[in-house]
Amino acid sequence: MTTQIADVQGAYDASGAEKARTLQTIYVYEAPVRLWHWVNALAITVLCVTGYFIGSPLPSVPGEASANFLMGYIRFAHFAAGQVLIVFFLLRVYWAFVGNAYARQLFYLPVWNKTWLWGVFYELRWYLFMVKDPKKYIGHNPLAHVAMFTFMLFLLFMMASGMALYSEGAGRDSWQYALFGWMFSIFPNSQDIHTWHHLGMWAIVTFVIVHVYAAVREDILSRQSMISSMVSGERLFRDDLKD
Amino acid sequence: MSAGMETFYEVIRRQGITRRSFTKFCSLTAASLGLGAGAATEMAQALETKPRIPVIWMHGLECTCCSESFIRSAHPLVKDVVLSMISLDYDDTIMAAAGHQADAILQETRQKYKGQYILAVEGNPPLNEDGMFCIDGGRPFVEKLKEMAEDAMAIIAWGACASWGCVQAAKPNPTQATPIDKVIKNKPIIKVPGCPPIAEVMTGVVTFVTTFGRLPDLDRQGRPKMFYSQRIHDKCYRRPHFDAGQFVEEWDDEGARKGYCLYKMGCKGPTTYNACSTVRWNGGVSFPIQSGHGCIGCSEDNFWDKGSFYDRLTGINQFGIEANADKVGGTVAGVVAAGVAAHAAVTAIKRVASKKPEQVG
Q1: Which ipTM score applies to this complex?
Q2: Which residues does residue B156 pair with via DSSP β-bridges, in sequence order?
Q3: Could you report the per-residue pLDDT of B20-71, keeping only the tens digit for each?
Q4: Does A60 sit within 8 Å of B326, measured CB to CB?
Q5: In chain A, what residues touch B264 (CB-CB under 8 Å)?
Q6: Which CATH architecture has domain A32-232?
Q7: The CA-based dihedral angle spanning residues B24, B28, B30, B33, taken in that order and rounded to the nearest 10 degrees
Q8: Is residue A161 within 8 Å of residue A197, measured between CB atoms?
Q9: Domains in chain B and their CATH numbers?
Q10: B218: which DSSP letter?
Q11: What is the pLDDT of residues B72-84, one digit of tens each?
Protein backbone atom coordinates (compact mmCIF):
# COMPACT_ATOMS: atom_id res chain seq x y z
CA MET A 1 0.00 0.00 0.00
CA THR A 2 2.62 2.48 1.01
CA THR A 3 4.78 1.59 -1.91
CA GLN A 4 1.87 2.18 -4.25
CA ILE A 5 1.31 5.71 -2.99
CA ALA A 6 5.00 6.43 -3.16
CA ASP A 7 5.03 5.40 -6.77
CA VAL A 8 2.27 7.80 -7.80
CA GLN A 9 3.38 11.04 -9.43
CA GLY A 10 1.94 14.40 -8.37
CA ALA A 11 0.39 15.82 -5.24
CA TYR A 12 -2.70 14.65 -3.34
CA ASP A 13 -4.77 16.18 -0.65
CA ALA A 14 -4.53 14.41 2.71
CA SER A 15 -7.39 11.97 2.06
CA GLY A 16 -6.15 11.14 -1.39
CA ALA A 17 -9.42 12.29 -2.87
CA GLU A 18 -8.07 14.95 -5.14
CA LYS A 19 -4.96 15.02 -7.18
CA ALA A 20 -3.19 18.20 -8.32
CA ARG A 21 -2.32 18.52 -11.94
CA THR A 22 1.32 18.42 -12.83
CA LEU A 23 2.22 21.77 -14.19
CA GLN A 24 5.16 22.73 -16.28
CA THR A 25 7.72 25.10 -14.79
CA ILE A 26 10.84 26.49 -16.33
CA TYR A 27 13.69 28.37 -14.73
CA VAL A 28 13.78 31.79 -16.38
CA TYR A 29 15.13 34.49 -14.08
CA GLU A 30 18.50 33.53 -12.67
CA ALA A 31 19.51 34.69 -9.20
CA PRO A 32 21.52 37.77 -10.35
CA VAL A 33 18.57 38.94 -12.46
CA ARG A 34 16.17 38.61 -9.54
CA LEU A 35 18.57 40.30 -7.17
CA TRP A 36 18.98 43.14 -9.66
CA HIS A 37 15.23 43.50 -9.99
CA TRP A 38 14.65 43.90 -6.27
CA VAL A 39 17.67 46.11 -5.70
CA ASN A 40 16.35 48.27 -8.52
CA ALA A 41 12.90 48.40 -6.97
CA LEU A 42 14.37 49.55 -3.67
CA ALA A 43 16.83 52.00 -5.24
CA ILE A 44 14.19 53.52 -7.50
CA THR A 45 11.83 53.99 -4.55
CA VAL A 46 14.56 55.77 -2.59
CA LEU A 47 15.57 57.80 -5.65
CA CYS A 48 12.03 58.97 -6.40
CA VAL A 49 11.27 59.99 -2.82
CA THR A 50 14.60 61.72 -2.15
CA GLY A 51 14.66 63.22 -5.64
CA TYR A 52 11.25 64.73 -5.10
CA PHE A 53 12.43 66.29 -1.85
CA ILE A 54 15.53 67.66 -3.51
CA GLY A 55 13.32 69.46 -6.02
CA SER A 56 10.76 70.51 -3.40
CA PRO A 57 12.50 70.46 -0.03
CA LEU A 58 10.74 69.80 3.28
CA PRO A 59 9.86 72.76 5.52
CA SER A 60 12.86 74.43 7.16
CA VAL A 61 14.30 72.81 10.24
CA PRO A 62 14.81 74.95 13.35
CA GLY A 63 18.12 75.51 15.11
CA GLU A 64 21.59 76.38 13.94
CA ALA A 65 22.79 75.27 10.53
CA SER A 66 25.71 73.49 12.16
CA ALA A 67 23.32 71.28 14.13
CA ASN A 68 21.39 70.08 11.09
CA PHE A 69 22.12 68.15 7.92
CA LEU A 70 18.68 67.19 6.66
CA MET A 71 19.14 68.24 3.03
CA GLY A 72 22.61 66.73 3.16
CA TYR A 73 21.23 63.35 4.26
CA ILE A 74 18.47 63.44 1.65
CA ARG A 75 20.99 64.20 -1.04
CA PHE A 76 23.34 61.55 0.31
CA ALA A 77 20.58 58.95 0.14
CA HIS A 78 19.82 60.03 -3.41
CA PHE A 79 23.45 59.83 -4.52
CA ALA A 80 24.03 56.52 -2.73
CA ALA A 81 20.90 54.94 -4.23
CA GLY A 82 21.85 56.29 -7.64
CA GLN A 83 25.29 54.77 -7.43
CA VAL A 84 23.87 51.45 -6.25
CA LEU A 85 21.53 51.57 -9.25
CA ILE A 86 24.43 52.17 -11.61
CA VAL A 87 26.69 49.50 -10.12
CA PHE A 88 23.92 46.92 -10.30
CA PHE A 89 23.09 48.01 -13.82
CA LEU A 90 26.68 47.36 -14.85
CA LEU A 91 26.56 43.94 -13.18
CA ARG A 92 23.32 43.30 -15.00
CA VAL A 93 24.92 44.18 -18.34
CA TYR A 94 27.69 41.74 -17.49
CA TRP A 95 25.08 39.11 -16.70
CA ALA A 96 23.45 39.70 -20.07
CA PHE A 97 26.62 38.24 -21.58
CA VAL A 98 27.12 35.29 -19.25
CA GLY A 99 23.55 34.54 -18.17
CA ASN A 100 20.87 32.57 -19.98
CA ALA A 101 19.05 33.75 -23.09
CA TYR A 102 16.33 35.52 -21.08
CA ALA A 103 18.97 37.68 -19.37
CA ARG A 104 19.61 39.36 -22.73
CA GLN A 105 16.02 40.24 -23.63
CA LEU A 106 15.99 43.66 -21.98
CA PHE A 107 18.79 45.03 -24.06
CA TYR A 108 17.57 44.63 -27.60
CA LEU A 109 14.38 44.39 -29.64
CA PRO A 110 14.29 41.60 -32.25
CA VAL A 111 12.41 43.79 -34.72
CA TRP A 112 13.61 41.64 -37.60
CA ASN A 113 11.76 38.62 -36.19
CA LYS A 114 8.29 38.36 -37.77
CA THR A 115 6.96 36.02 -35.09
CA TRP A 116 8.04 38.46 -32.45
CA LEU A 117 6.43 41.39 -34.25
CA TRP A 118 3.22 39.41 -34.62
CA GLY A 119 3.44 38.75 -30.87
CA VAL A 120 3.65 42.47 -30.09
CA PHE A 121 0.39 43.10 -31.86
CA TYR A 122 -1.21 39.97 -30.45
CA GLU A 123 -0.42 41.05 -26.88
CA LEU A 124 -1.57 44.56 -27.70
CA ARG A 125 -4.91 43.08 -28.78
CA TRP A 126 -4.99 41.08 -25.55
CA TYR A 127 -4.70 44.33 -23.62
CA LEU A 128 -7.40 45.90 -25.76
CA PHE A 129 -9.72 42.99 -24.86
CA MET A 130 -9.78 41.86 -28.46
CA VAL A 131 -8.58 38.28 -27.90
CA LYS A 132 -9.72 35.83 -25.26
CA ASP A 133 -6.38 34.54 -24.03
CA PRO A 134 -2.79 35.69 -24.19
CA LYS A 135 -0.04 33.50 -25.51
CA LYS A 136 2.38 31.73 -23.23
CA TYR A 137 5.90 33.08 -23.18
CA ILE A 138 8.91 31.81 -21.28
CA GLY A 139 10.64 35.17 -21.01
CA HIS A 140 8.94 38.53 -21.53
CA ASN A 141 5.97 38.59 -23.83
CA PRO A 142 6.77 40.77 -26.87
CA LEU A 143 4.77 43.76 -25.64
CA ALA A 144 6.39 43.58 -22.20
CA HIS A 145 9.69 43.22 -24.00
CA VAL A 146 9.09 46.57 -25.75
CA ALA A 147 8.08 48.16 -22.44
CA MET A 148 11.17 46.86 -20.62
CA PHE A 149 13.49 47.94 -23.41
CA THR A 150 11.96 51.43 -23.34
CA PHE A 151 12.39 51.47 -19.59
CA MET A 152 16.07 50.61 -20.02
CA LEU A 153 16.43 53.67 -22.27
CA PHE A 154 14.85 55.87 -19.61
CA LEU A 155 17.07 54.29 -16.98
CA LEU A 156 20.14 54.99 -19.10
CA PHE A 157 19.09 58.62 -19.50
CA MET A 158 18.49 58.92 -15.76
CA MET A 159 21.89 57.45 -14.97
CA ALA A 160 23.70 59.68 -17.47
CA SER A 161 21.87 62.85 -16.45
CA GLY A 162 22.20 61.93 -12.78
CA MET A 163 25.94 61.50 -13.07
CA ALA A 164 26.21 64.75 -15.04
CA LEU A 165 24.35 66.57 -12.26
CA TYR A 166 26.51 64.85 -9.66
CA SER A 167 29.60 66.03 -11.52
CA GLU A 168 28.50 69.63 -10.94
CA GLY A 169 29.28 69.16 -7.27
CA ALA A 170 32.15 66.73 -7.76
CA GLY A 171 33.93 69.27 -9.91
CA ARG A 172 35.27 69.66 -13.40
CA ASP A 173 38.27 67.48 -12.61
CA SER A 174 36.12 64.57 -11.49
CA TRP A 175 35.77 61.31 -13.41
CA GLN A 176 32.03 61.89 -13.34
CA TYR A 177 32.52 65.04 -15.41
CA ALA A 178 35.03 63.31 -17.68
CA LEU A 179 32.55 60.52 -18.41
CA PHE A 180 29.24 62.41 -18.39
CA GLY A 181 30.20 66.02 -19.10
CA TRP A 182 28.92 65.53 -22.65
CA MET A 183 25.44 65.98 -21.25
CA PHE A 184 26.31 69.67 -20.92
CA SER A 185 27.05 69.82 -24.63
CA ILE A 186 23.46 68.71 -25.26
CA PHE A 187 22.02 70.93 -22.51
CA PRO A 188 24.36 73.93 -22.05
CA ASN A 189 22.27 75.21 -19.14
CA SER A 190 22.16 72.56 -16.44
CA GLN A 191 18.73 73.86 -15.44
CA ASP A 192 17.49 71.83 -18.42
CA ILE A 193 19.22 68.67 -17.22
CA HIS A 194 17.51 69.16 -13.85
CA THR A 195 14.15 69.51 -15.60
CA TRP A 196 14.60 66.45 -17.82
CA HIS A 197 15.93 64.43 -14.89
CA HIS A 198 12.83 65.45 -12.97
CA LEU A 199 10.53 64.53 -15.86
CA GLY A 200 12.42 61.23 -16.12
CA MET A 201 11.44 60.52 -12.52
CA TRP A 202 7.79 60.89 -13.45
CA ALA A 203 8.29 58.68 -16.49
CA ILE A 204 9.67 56.01 -14.16
CA VAL A 205 6.79 56.45 -11.73
CA THR A 206 4.44 56.00 -14.69
CA PHE A 207 6.34 52.89 -15.73
CA VAL A 208 6.10 51.46 -12.21
CA ILE A 209 2.32 51.95 -12.20
CA VAL A 210 1.94 50.11 -15.50
CA HIS A 211 4.57 47.49 -14.58
CA VAL A 212 2.97 46.55 -11.27
CA TYR A 213 -0.51 46.54 -12.78
CA ALA A 214 0.55 44.36 -15.70
CA ALA A 215 2.42 41.94 -13.41
CA VAL A 216 -0.56 41.55 -11.06
CA ARG A 217 -3.05 41.31 -13.93
CA GLU A 218 -1.03 38.74 -15.82
CA ASP A 219 -0.41 36.76 -12.67
CA ILE A 220 -4.17 36.44 -12.25
CA LEU A 221 -5.36 36.23 -15.84
CA SER A 222 -2.65 34.92 -18.03
CA ARG A 223 -1.66 31.33 -18.25
CA GLN A 224 1.65 31.77 -16.49
CA SER A 225 3.07 32.97 -13.18
CA MET A 226 4.49 36.48 -12.91
CA ILE A 227 5.12 37.81 -9.42
CA SER A 228 6.39 34.57 -7.89
CA SER A 229 8.65 34.15 -10.93
CA MET A 230 10.59 37.21 -9.87
CA VAL A 231 11.01 35.63 -6.43
CA SER A 232 11.80 32.02 -7.29
CA GLY A 233 12.98 32.52 -10.84
CA GLU A 234 10.64 29.80 -12.06
CA ARG A 235 7.85 30.44 -14.49
CA LEU A 236 4.86 28.20 -13.96
CA PHE A 237 2.56 27.47 -16.87
CA ARG A 238 -0.93 26.89 -15.62
CA ASP A 239 -2.62 25.10 -18.46
CA ASP A 240 -1.98 22.80 -21.33
CA LEU A 241 -4.78 24.10 -23.50
CA LYS A 242 -4.27 24.22 -27.18
CA ASP A 243 -3.08 27.58 -28.39
CA MET B 1 47.49 105.95 -30.69
CA SER B 2 49.92 104.34 -32.99
CA ALA B 3 52.41 103.25 -30.32
CA GLY B 4 52.62 99.86 -31.97
CA MET B 5 55.51 98.02 -30.40
CA GLU B 6 55.39 99.60 -26.95
CA THR B 7 55.24 97.15 -24.08
CA PHE B 8 52.51 97.17 -21.49
CA TYR B 9 55.05 98.24 -18.88
CA GLU B 10 56.20 101.20 -20.93
CA VAL B 11 52.63 102.34 -21.38
CA ILE B 12 51.81 102.32 -17.69
CA ARG B 13 55.09 103.96 -16.71
CA ARG B 14 54.35 106.67 -19.23
CA GLN B 15 51.03 107.12 -17.48
CA GLY B 16 52.82 107.71 -14.21
CA ILE B 17 52.22 104.40 -12.49
CA THR B 18 55.00 103.29 -10.17
CA ARG B 19 56.90 100.06 -10.48
CA ARG B 20 55.69 99.11 -7.01
CA SER B 21 52.07 99.39 -8.19
CA PHE B 22 52.97 97.42 -11.26
CA THR B 23 54.37 94.48 -9.30
CA LYS B 24 51.39 94.60 -6.97
CA PHE B 25 49.13 94.42 -9.99
CA CYS B 26 51.06 91.43 -11.31
CA SER B 27 50.85 89.46 -8.08
CA LEU B 28 47.18 90.30 -7.54
CA THR B 29 46.25 89.36 -11.07
CA ALA B 30 48.29 86.15 -10.94
CA ALA B 31 46.50 85.22 -7.73
CA SER B 32 43.06 86.02 -9.08
CA LEU B 33 43.77 83.93 -12.16
CA GLY B 34 44.63 81.03 -9.89
CA LEU B 35 48.17 80.80 -11.22
CA GLY B 36 51.09 79.44 -9.21
CA ALA B 37 53.60 81.31 -7.05
CA GLY B 38 56.07 81.92 -9.85
CA ALA B 39 53.43 83.35 -12.14
CA ALA B 40 53.63 86.93 -10.85
CA THR B 41 57.27 87.14 -11.91
CA GLU B 42 56.46 85.49 -15.20
CA MET B 43 53.67 87.97 -15.73
CA ALA B 44 55.85 90.96 -14.88
CA GLN B 45 58.50 89.64 -17.24
CA ALA B 46 56.01 89.25 -20.05
CA LEU B 47 54.45 92.66 -19.54
CA GLU B 48 57.87 94.29 -19.52
CA THR B 49 59.23 92.66 -22.63
CA LYS B 50 56.45 91.57 -24.97
CA PRO B 51 54.84 94.10 -27.26
CA ARG B 52 51.31 94.66 -26.02
CA ILE B 53 48.53 93.08 -27.97
CA PRO B 54 46.07 95.47 -29.58
CA VAL B 55 42.45 95.01 -28.61
CA ILE B 56 39.48 96.05 -30.70
CA TRP B 57 36.25 96.35 -28.71
CA MET B 58 33.09 96.22 -30.82
CA HIS B 59 29.46 96.67 -29.84
CA GLY B 60 26.55 94.80 -31.41
CA LEU B 61 23.04 94.45 -30.03
CA GLU B 62 23.68 95.11 -26.37
CA CYS B 63 23.03 97.45 -23.44
CA THR B 64 26.65 98.37 -22.65
CA CYS B 65 26.37 96.87 -19.17
CA CYS B 66 29.56 94.91 -19.90
CA SER B 67 31.45 98.17 -20.49
CA GLU B 68 29.83 99.70 -17.42
CA SER B 69 30.97 96.74 -15.35
CA PHE B 70 34.43 96.76 -16.86
CA ILE B 71 35.19 100.39 -16.04
CA ARG B 72 34.21 99.71 -12.43
CA SER B 73 36.90 97.11 -11.86
CA ALA B 74 37.89 97.16 -8.21
CA HIS B 75 41.57 97.53 -8.63
CA PRO B 76 42.00 101.04 -10.06
CA LEU B 77 45.22 100.07 -11.72
CA VAL B 78 43.55 97.30 -13.59
CA LYS B 79 40.89 99.63 -14.88
CA ASP B 80 43.24 102.43 -15.85
CA VAL B 81 45.86 100.31 -17.42
CA VAL B 82 43.76 97.71 -19.19
CA LEU B 83 41.12 100.16 -20.29
CA SER B 84 43.55 102.71 -21.64
CA MET B 85 45.40 99.96 -23.36
CA ILE B 86 42.23 98.89 -25.12
CA SER B 87 40.81 102.31 -25.89
CA LEU B 88 44.06 103.16 -27.56
CA ASP B 89 42.84 101.12 -30.46
CA TYR B 90 39.08 101.00 -30.73
CA ASP B 91 36.02 101.10 -28.53
CA ASP B 92 33.27 103.15 -30.11
CA THR B 93 31.47 103.75 -26.83
CA ILE B 94 34.32 105.32 -24.89
CA MET B 95 36.89 106.39 -27.47
CA ALA B 96 37.44 110.02 -28.32
CA ALA B 97 37.37 109.52 -32.07
CA ALA B 98 34.07 109.33 -33.89
CA GLY B 99 32.59 108.76 -37.34
CA HIS B 100 34.94 108.05 -40.23
CA GLN B 101 37.94 108.74 -38.03
CA ALA B 102 36.93 105.93 -35.68
CA ASP B 103 36.10 103.61 -38.52
CA ALA B 104 39.49 104.22 -40.05
CA ILE B 105 41.13 102.85 -36.90
CA LEU B 106 39.42 99.54 -37.44
CA GLN B 107 40.85 99.17 -40.92
CA GLU B 108 44.25 100.38 -39.78
CA THR B 109 44.43 97.87 -36.95
CA ARG B 110 43.20 95.13 -39.21
CA GLN B 111 45.96 95.74 -41.74
CA LYS B 112 48.76 96.60 -39.37
CA TYR B 113 48.20 93.79 -36.87
CA LYS B 114 46.79 91.11 -39.15
CA GLY B 115 46.31 87.95 -37.10
CA GLN B 116 47.67 89.61 -33.96
CA TYR B 117 44.87 91.61 -32.40
CA ILE B 118 42.17 90.50 -30.01
CA LEU B 119 38.61 91.19 -31.06
CA ALA B 120 36.43 91.80 -28.02
CA VAL B 121 32.75 91.77 -28.87
CA GLU B 122 30.05 93.11 -26.61
CA GLY B 123 26.58 92.19 -27.79
CA ASN B 124 25.68 90.05 -30.76
CA PRO B 125 24.65 90.41 -34.39
CA PRO B 126 20.97 90.07 -35.37
CA LEU B 127 20.79 88.06 -38.58
CA ASN B 128 17.20 88.66 -39.64
CA GLU B 129 16.54 91.02 -42.58
CA ASP B 130 20.20 90.72 -43.58
CA GLY B 131 21.30 92.15 -40.25
CA MET B 132 19.37 95.40 -40.62
CA PHE B 133 18.39 95.46 -36.95
CA CYS B 134 21.86 96.60 -35.93
CA ILE B 135 23.51 99.16 -38.15
CA ASP B 136 26.97 100.27 -37.14
CA GLY B 137 28.74 102.91 -39.22
CA GLY B 138 26.21 102.64 -42.02
CA ARG B 139 26.22 98.89 -42.51
CA PRO B 140 25.00 95.79 -40.69
CA PHE B 141 27.00 94.96 -37.61
CA VAL B 142 27.25 91.32 -38.70
CA GLU B 143 29.28 92.35 -41.76
CA LYS B 144 31.63 94.43 -39.68
CA LEU B 145 31.98 91.62 -37.16
CA LYS B 146 32.85 89.04 -39.81
CA GLU B 147 35.32 91.41 -41.41
CA MET B 148 37.16 92.19 -38.17
CA ALA B 149 37.03 88.56 -37.03
CA GLU B 150 38.72 87.46 -40.25
CA ASP B 151 42.09 88.91 -39.24
CA ALA B 152 41.82 88.60 -35.46
CA MET B 153 44.00 86.31 -33.37
CA ALA B 154 41.11 85.40 -31.11
CA ILE B 155 37.73 86.69 -30.07
CA ILE B 156 36.48 87.53 -26.61
CA ALA B 157 32.70 87.26 -26.41
CA TRP B 158 31.73 89.64 -23.63
CA GLY B 159 28.64 88.94 -21.61
CA ALA B 160 25.55 86.83 -22.02
CA CYS B 161 24.69 88.56 -25.35
CA ALA B 162 27.85 87.62 -27.17
CA SER B 163 28.13 84.24 -25.42
CA TRP B 164 24.57 82.97 -25.48
CA GLY B 165 22.26 85.58 -27.00
CA CYS B 166 20.70 87.02 -23.82
CA VAL B 167 17.48 89.04 -23.79
CA GLN B 168 17.47 90.03 -27.46
CA ALA B 169 17.68 86.34 -28.37
CA ALA B 170 14.90 85.37 -25.95
CA LYS B 171 11.76 83.93 -27.50
CA PRO B 172 10.50 84.83 -30.01
CA ASN B 173 13.76 86.55 -30.98
CA PRO B 174 12.30 88.67 -33.81
CA THR B 175 15.66 90.04 -34.90
CA GLN B 176 17.26 86.58 -34.83
CA ALA B 177 19.99 87.81 -32.52
CA THR B 178 22.72 85.18 -32.62
CA PRO B 179 25.67 84.56 -30.31
CA ILE B 180 29.15 85.10 -31.71
CA ASP B 181 30.18 81.43 -31.83
CA LYS B 182 27.24 80.65 -34.13
CA VAL B 183 28.41 83.30 -36.60
CA ILE B 184 32.19 83.09 -36.44
CA LYS B 185 33.33 79.49 -36.77
CA ASN B 186 36.98 79.71 -37.70
CA LYS B 187 38.51 81.61 -34.77
CA PRO B 188 39.16 80.69 -31.16
CA ILE B 189 36.39 82.24 -29.09
CA ILE B 190 36.48 82.79 -25.37
CA LYS B 191 33.09 83.29 -23.75
CA VAL B 192 32.88 85.53 -20.72
CA PRO B 193 29.18 85.27 -19.90
CA GLY B 194 27.22 87.25 -17.34
CA CYS B 195 24.80 90.12 -17.58
CA PRO B 196 27.17 91.80 -17.08
CA PRO B 197 30.28 89.73 -16.32
CA ILE B 198 32.14 90.59 -13.12
CA ALA B 199 34.63 93.42 -13.71
CA GLU B 200 37.55 91.51 -12.20
CA VAL B 201 36.73 88.51 -14.36
CA MET B 202 36.81 90.70 -17.46
CA THR B 203 40.07 92.40 -16.62
CA GLY B 204 41.50 89.05 -15.54
CA VAL B 205 40.71 87.55 -18.92
CA VAL B 206 42.08 90.52 -20.85
CA THR B 207 45.20 90.53 -18.74
CA PHE B 208 45.76 86.83 -19.23
CA VAL B 209 45.35 87.01 -22.99
CA THR B 210 47.46 90.13 -23.44
CA THR B 211 50.13 88.86 -21.06
CA PHE B 212 50.58 85.35 -22.33
CA GLY B 213 49.44 85.88 -25.89
CA ARG B 214 47.12 82.88 -25.73
CA LEU B 215 43.69 82.03 -24.42
CA PRO B 216 43.33 80.64 -20.91
CA ASP B 217 42.08 77.06 -20.47
CA LEU B 218 38.48 76.92 -21.57
CA ASP B 219 35.76 74.56 -20.48
CA ARG B 220 33.44 72.53 -22.71
CA GLN B 221 31.38 75.62 -23.45
CA GLY B 222 34.28 77.95 -24.18
CA ARG B 223 34.37 79.72 -20.82
CA PRO B 224 37.64 80.32 -18.96
CA LYS B 225 37.96 77.56 -16.39
CA MET B 226 39.57 79.86 -13.86
CA PHE B 227 36.32 81.79 -13.35
CA TYR B 228 33.55 79.51 -14.57
CA SER B 229 34.35 76.02 -13.33
CA GLN B 230 32.29 76.24 -10.17
CA ARG B 231 28.71 77.08 -9.45
CA ILE B 232 27.57 80.01 -7.33
CA HIS B 233 26.09 77.31 -5.07
CA ASP B 234 29.45 75.60 -4.48
CA LYS B 235 31.02 78.66 -2.87
CA CYS B 236 27.92 80.35 -1.52
CA TYR B 237 28.22 81.52 2.07
CA ARG B 238 24.60 80.39 2.63
CA ARG B 239 25.42 76.82 1.59
CA PRO B 240 25.43 75.50 5.19
CA HIS B 241 21.75 76.47 5.42
CA PHE B 242 21.06 74.51 2.24
CA ASP B 243 22.73 71.37 3.57
CA ALA B 244 20.96 71.81 6.90
CA GLY B 245 17.60 72.12 5.17
CA GLN B 246 16.94 75.73 6.19
CA PHE B 247 15.25 77.80 3.52
CA VAL B 248 13.64 81.15 3.01
CA GLU B 249 10.03 80.08 2.44
CA GLU B 250 8.75 83.50 1.46
CA TRP B 251 10.17 87.01 1.25
CA ASP B 252 10.50 88.72 4.61
CA ASP B 253 9.90 85.60 6.68
CA GLU B 254 11.99 84.53 9.65
CA GLY B 255 14.30 82.53 7.40
CA ALA B 256 14.95 85.57 5.20
CA ARG B 257 15.93 87.58 8.27
CA LYS B 258 18.24 84.82 9.41
CA GLY B 259 19.89 84.62 6.01
CA TYR B 260 18.74 81.12 5.13
CA CYS B 261 19.25 79.53 1.72
CA LEU B 262 17.22 81.06 -1.14
CA TYR B 263 16.81 77.72 -2.96
CA LYS B 264 13.03 77.65 -2.56
CA MET B 265 12.79 81.23 -3.76
CA GLY B 266 14.13 80.09 -7.12
CA CYS B 267 17.79 80.94 -6.60
CA LYS B 268 19.66 79.71 -9.69
CA GLY B 269 22.94 79.36 -7.79
CA PRO B 270 22.87 75.54 -8.13
CA THR B 271 22.87 75.75 -11.92
CA THR B 272 24.94 78.86 -12.52
CA TYR B 273 28.64 78.85 -13.25
CA ASN B 274 30.23 82.12 -12.29
CA ALA B 275 32.58 83.68 -9.74
CA CYS B 276 30.04 85.92 -7.95
CA SER B 277 30.19 84.03 -4.65
CA THR B 278 34.00 84.28 -4.54
CA VAL B 279 35.00 87.49 -6.35
CA ARG B 280 31.72 89.28 -5.61
CA TRP B 281 30.82 92.68 -7.01
CA ASN B 282 31.80 96.33 -6.65
CA GLY B 283 35.18 95.61 -5.20
CA GLY B 284 34.08 92.57 -3.22
CA VAL B 285 31.29 94.45 -1.44
CA SER B 286 28.43 92.04 -2.08
CA PHE B 287 26.62 89.86 -4.58
CA PRO B 288 22.92 89.19 -5.16
CA ILE B 289 22.53 86.35 -2.63
CA GLN B 290 24.33 88.36 0.02
CA SER B 291 21.78 91.14 -0.43
CA GLY B 292 18.93 88.66 0.03
CA HIS B 293 17.89 87.95 -3.54
CA GLY B 294 18.44 84.68 -5.35
CA CYS B 295 20.81 84.33 -8.27
CA ILE B 296 18.94 84.74 -11.59
CA GLY B 297 21.49 82.71 -13.52
CA CYS B 298 22.46 85.57 -15.83
CA SER B 299 25.65 83.88 -17.00
CA GLU B 300 23.82 80.76 -18.17
CA ASP B 301 22.62 79.86 -21.64
CA ASN B 302 19.18 81.17 -22.50
CA PHE B 303 18.44 82.30 -18.96
CA TRP B 304 15.55 84.51 -20.05
CA ASP B 305 13.61 81.54 -21.36
CA LYS B 306 14.08 79.27 -18.34
CA GLY B 307 10.92 80.25 -16.52
CA SER B 308 10.53 82.61 -13.60
CA PHE B 309 13.52 83.84 -11.62
CA TYR B 310 11.52 82.94 -8.52
CA ASP B 311 10.54 79.32 -9.21
CA ARG B 312 12.59 76.40 -8.00
CA LEU B 313 11.31 74.06 -10.69
CA THR B 314 11.84 75.37 -14.18
CA GLY B 315 8.65 76.39 -15.96
CA ILE B 316 7.70 74.28 -18.97
CA ASN B 317 5.67 76.81 -20.86
CA GLN B 318 4.69 74.46 -23.67
CA PHE B 319 2.20 73.03 -21.17
CA GLY B 320 0.91 76.33 -19.87
CA ILE B 321 2.54 79.18 -18.06
CA GLU B 322 2.18 77.55 -14.64
CA ALA B 323 3.51 74.13 -15.66
CA ASN B 324 6.70 72.58 -14.34
CA ALA B 325 8.20 69.08 -14.22
CA ASP B 326 6.03 68.03 -11.26
CA LYS B 327 2.83 69.27 -12.83
CA VAL B 328 3.52 67.75 -16.25
CA GLY B 329 4.93 64.48 -14.87
CA GLY B 330 2.34 64.22 -12.12
CA THR B 331 -0.46 64.71 -14.65
CA VAL B 332 0.97 62.00 -16.92
CA ALA B 333 1.34 59.59 -14.00
CA GLY B 334 -2.18 60.45 -12.81
CA VAL B 335 -3.74 59.91 -16.23
CA VAL B 336 -1.92 56.61 -16.62
CA ALA B 337 -2.99 55.52 -13.14
CA ALA B 338 -6.60 56.37 -14.01
CA GLY B 339 -6.21 54.44 -17.26
CA VAL B 340 -4.83 51.47 -15.36
CA ALA B 341 -7.75 51.59 -12.91
CA ALA B 342 -10.26 51.74 -15.78
CA HIS B 343 -8.48 48.88 -17.52
CA ALA B 344 -8.56 46.83 -14.31
CA ALA B 345 -12.29 47.54 -13.95
CA VAL B 346 -13.03 46.42 -17.51
CA THR B 347 -10.91 43.32 -16.95
CA ALA B 348 -12.79 42.46 -13.77
CA ILE B 349 -16.20 42.99 -15.38
CA LYS B 350 -15.29 40.89 -18.40
CA ARG B 351 -13.95 38.16 -16.14
CA VAL B 352 -17.11 38.02 -14.06
CA ALA B 353 -19.24 38.04 -17.20
CA SER B 354 -17.30 35.22 -18.82
CA LYS B 355 -17.36 33.05 -15.68
CA LYS B 356 -21.12 32.98 -15.28
CA PRO B 357 -21.85 30.26 -17.84
CA GLU B 358 -19.19 28.02 -16.25
CA GLN B 359 -20.85 28.27 -12.84
CA VAL B 360 -24.21 27.50 -14.34
CA GLY B 361 -22.86 24.59 -16.30
Answers
A1: 0.88
A2: B120, B190
A3: 988 888 888 788 777 777 888 888 888 888 777 788 889 999 999 998 888 8
A4: no
A5: 57
A6: Up-down Bundle (1.20)
A7: -160
A8: yes
A9: 8-228 (3.40.50.700), 233-312 (4.10.480.10)
A10: B
A11: 876 656 666 666 5
